[in-house]
Design goal:
Layout: H1 2-13, H2 18-25, H3 29-37, H4 44-54, H5 63-79
């Protein structure tokens, strides 16, 4: 879910439409929507490809770094219009 949110924020910051990013990543528009929603059925390769196109850092060695990254994303999402951010309970327990 965090990666999906990061992708949505980065796409918005790049001022790319969902269709434009989907075309750049060679995925369908509905697939990009599922990726941004954090749908676990999405191919990890497709998710990584979209993240790489947007320049999103995929890995961090320490838990504190990941926690800080999540906090920054939540702050960015709070500033975006409701149409961009999705509300609801996040289940990030693995």
């Amino acid at each position: 879910m965090v990666l999906g949110r990061m992708i949505r924020v980065a796409r918005t910051e790049h001022k790319w439409s969902a269709q434009e990013l989907a075309e750049r990543a060679a995925v369908s528009r509905p697939m990009l929507s599922r990726i941004e929603e954090g749908n676990p059925a999405c191919s990890i390769g497709a998710v990584f490809e979209v993240a790489a196109i947007l320049g999103i850092k995929l890995f961090d060695a320490d838990r504190a770094g990941l926690s800080e990254m999540r906090h920054q994303i939540e702050q960015k999402l709070a500033l975006l219009p409701k149409a961009v951010r999705k509300t609801g309970k996040v289940n990030d327990e693995f």
